[in-house]
Design a protein that fits this description.
Number of strands of chain A: 9
Radius of gyration of chain A: 20 Å
Helix content of chain A: 25-40%
Oligomer: homodimer
Largest sheet of chain A: 7 strands, mixed
Shape of chain A: globular
Strand content of chain A: 5-15%
Chain lengths: ~325, ~325
């Protein structure tokens, strides 16, 4: 199938090297007569989430959830209102939260919003937030802001036998609330940052209580480590957008005995979205991976040039 | 489908309550008109491995691998021969290995055989061992000794839309070498004990080096914790054989809003296999889970009574 047939699998992608690169790779590895043929069991695609499948500005969406949770709880929990780090979060003083070598402020906010409740209670809090919260720039629910071209890529690779996995710095428990509905990716194909829960058999039944113990931050070199731990084999497609994805791009593509494909979403579109790489307002610094891309043959997607649509129109 | 039709899905199971219990559960949850109907996405089955899908005597097979590795390496590595814990392992002195609160001897043997190499090197060592090693009682390669009735159960549940996951105290890296070939379960559906690898980009490409850092032992309360971390939803079928599986049996079946099924393999067959529960020669103590089974409605499989075949005949 090529981009010129009636059923274009990537209609939100403009004609050009990015779209052609994707189509050519998939054609090559799914052709049983090609020496590059990938057996279905080796069609493993990994995707970063923040900045790759949805935006990470003005703050990563999970941080917006944490701040909104504090805001919601402050009226009923006066102790929270006295907490200097809660005050910093509510005032948008992120510099204060990020002070110190161990990011104590940020961890404190995480502890308040991501620990001490059961996994079911946390699930319900995220689900409720997704219903009520609106992105400050787009005025839409956060989960309506996934990139349409990347949604097309997920579906296109899925239709060609690839098993899609999220491999993100975001919390696994946070993402699993909505990824199946929004991306069609089941919870067991979500690799994220995690901490260990505690199992308890209560009168009401078994519960798992969230803690921050054994916190694992799924970023940088942690990504290939987690891919090995959770998936157990090397991916053949890797999509990212920042230096935090560099190690998993390397792990996927360098000296892989299988054909492989690396893709970097470059945020070049200040008008429709945000323009950043070396300098960011939030997360997503992109310098080393961009430098390395030409040598490694990674496809750099220029958001402004390569995507004709960013978000699907709201149903409303 | 019932057990009396021509195509019996469980031919190695004798007629009786165990076989009927399995068939009745599957019929009930796959019938769209039944109030117990399970949507396919909720058909998650978890299986312990040692003692549930293959034996754990005279020692867990992964321990046999570790001892054989030491034996193989001693001639070329004189320092190993001087090591008192290696000597204990080679002499079969397991009591010495298990001395001390922190099981230092066992961890030392683990460190020698399961760390310090790349994941590919470890994979190759396990694959080579499976080819050469023979079980001391049955004289067959270890991976030919999976229980035929449980293989039938895996296939039967798989054919009825269940996604099968191994959730075992065994090492994930050890199991992933052979589970896809032997059980048809891909590496990403194997949840086991893990330690963190280290990512390194060498001249030859990226490697992951095995360490014992952040060791997670996937047993007891660790099992529901790992199920949440790796799978992200509650199972609806759980098969185990020991008190190490009690917590995941509870997590699967107690107050689960979905219909659920718990199964315990009781080793009652000293003639064909091994007979043990409260007293074991190796791992697999079964007391608390057996006590709790009637109250919880877990099916206790009596190996001697319920299984007419233990192992498939060797092709050789």
């Amino acid at each position: 199938m090529t981009a010129t047939t009636a059923a274009d699998p990537l209609p939100s992608w403009n004609e050009g090297p990015a779209k052609q690169g994707i189509l050519a790779f998939v054609a090559r590895v799914t052709d049983e007569k090609s020496p590059a043929f990938l057996p279905p069991s080796e069609r493993i695609a990994v995707y970063d989430n923040d900045g790759t499948l949805w935006p990470e500005n003005p703050v990563p969406f999970q941080a917006a959830f944490a701040f909104d949770e504090l805001k919601r709880r402050v009226p009923a929990e006066p102790a929270l209102a006295e907490d200097p780090m809660v005050q910093a979060a509510l005032a948008g003083d992120f510099a204060k939260l990020l002070q110190g070598e161990h990011l104590d402020g940020l961890l404190h906010v995480l502890a308040l919003t991501h620990a001490g409740m059961t996994v079911d209670e946390f699930h319900d809090a995220v689900a409720a937030w997704l219903t009520s919260a609106r992105h400050p720039r787009y005025g839409r629910p956060y989960d309506e802001l996934t990139y349409t071209p990347m949604q097309e890529l997920l579906r296109y690779l899925g239709a060609n036998g690839f098993k899609n996995f999220i491999v993100s710095g975001g919390g696994a428990d946070f993402m699993r609330v909505w990824v199946e509905r929004v991306y069609g990716i089941p919870p067991e194909q979500v690799v994220g940052s995690t901490a260990r829960t505690t199992f308890k058999l209560c009168d009401s039944g078994p519960v798992l209580i969230k803690t921050l113990g054994h916190l694992f931050v799924n970023d940088n070199e942690g990504k290939p480590v987690a891919i090995h731990q959770f998936i157990g084999r090397r991916p053949t497609v890797c999509c990212g957008n920042s230096d935090g994805d560099l190690a998993m791009l390397q792990y996927t593509t360098i000296n892989n005995p299988r054909p492989s494909f690396g893709l970097i979403v470059h945020h070049t579109d200040g008008q429709r979205e945000y323009a950043y790489d070396a300098k960011t307002k939030s997360t997503g610094k992109l310098v080393a991976a961009l430098d390395e891309a030409p040598t490694r043959g990674w496809l750099v997607v220029d958001m402004q040039r390569d995507w004709n649509t960013l978000f699907t129109q709201s149903a409303a």
